[in-house]
Amino acid sequence: MATEKEKILAECSKTLDKGRAVATGIGVFAVVVNEAGPLLRRRIEKDSLYGQDLSGKWEMTGGGAELPHFTVKPGPEGLSNYQQSIFACLQQELQEEAGLKLLRLPQPLSFVPAWLWRPYEEKESKEQRISIDLAFSVPLIWNDGYLEETSDFKKKLQRGELMFVPARELPNIDIVSPRTRFLIEEALKLIGSL
Question: Are 135 and 188 spatial neighbours (Cβ–Cβ below 8 Å)?
Fold first, then answer.
């Protein structure tokens, strides 16, 4: 019997044979906004999908959706199966990266999509690869009851690992990529903060 990974790889292979795109990554990010502007986190990780050192630059809180996010047990009432996956991913990433507890998602759920198609060289094998990476940003307004602070959040703010950036200052911030900047700015437009 084939493993889950083998089934996914077989399905991807069939899709590629038809000339269709297969995403090699799906990122889900939260654009948390208070009266000052969006919450950004200083990236501490040196590695990235494309082998670049992006440490020290700023990004949204979030990350890659993983298989367990797609098979989660029901969370907050009223979420569709699709929204459950988004909730699970954001809940994990907000807790790990910002020390915030995600309590619920806005309804109706709004999000901004973006994708990259990019050739790259795999570090170890030096093999030329192509990745298609999808990303979505979900705007969350700070005082609307979506989030709960923890002591870890307060420590990260004090240490400068997190900051609320005034929207007018956003063009001067060293964001990890143009796509990330696009996802932040478009999420701010959705809620009327830009």
Answer: no
Please name the residues in contact with 29: beta carbons below 8 A apart, sequence gap of 6 or more. 59, 60, 61, 62, 63, 90, 93, 135, 136, 137, 138, 180, 183
DSSP H helices in 18-132: 67-70, 81-98
Closest CA relative to residue 186, chosen from 170, 162, 169: 170
pLDDT (0 to 100) of residue 65: 87
**CA-to-CA distance for 29 and 181, rounded, in angstroms?**
12
- The pTM assigned to this predicted structure is 0.83
Nearest-angstrom CA–CA distance, 140 and 136: 13
User: How much is the pLDDT for 78?
Assistant: 78
**Tokens 């063009």 correspond to what residue?**
171
The span from the CA of 138 to the CA of 127, in Å, is 34
The tokens of 20 are what? 């269709």
Which pLDDT score is estimated for 50? 56
Please state, in angstroms and rounded to a whole number, the distance separating the CA atoms of residues 111 and 40. 17
Q: Which domains does the chain have, with CATH numbers?
A: 22-190 (3.90.79.10)
pLDDT tens digits for range 5-32: 787 777 777 777 777 766 678 899 999 9
List of the chain residues with pLDDT < 70: 21-23, 46-51, 75, 193-194
In whole angstroms, how far apart are CA 167 and each of 143, 184, 188?
Answer: 17, 10, 8
State residue 139's pLDDT score. 97
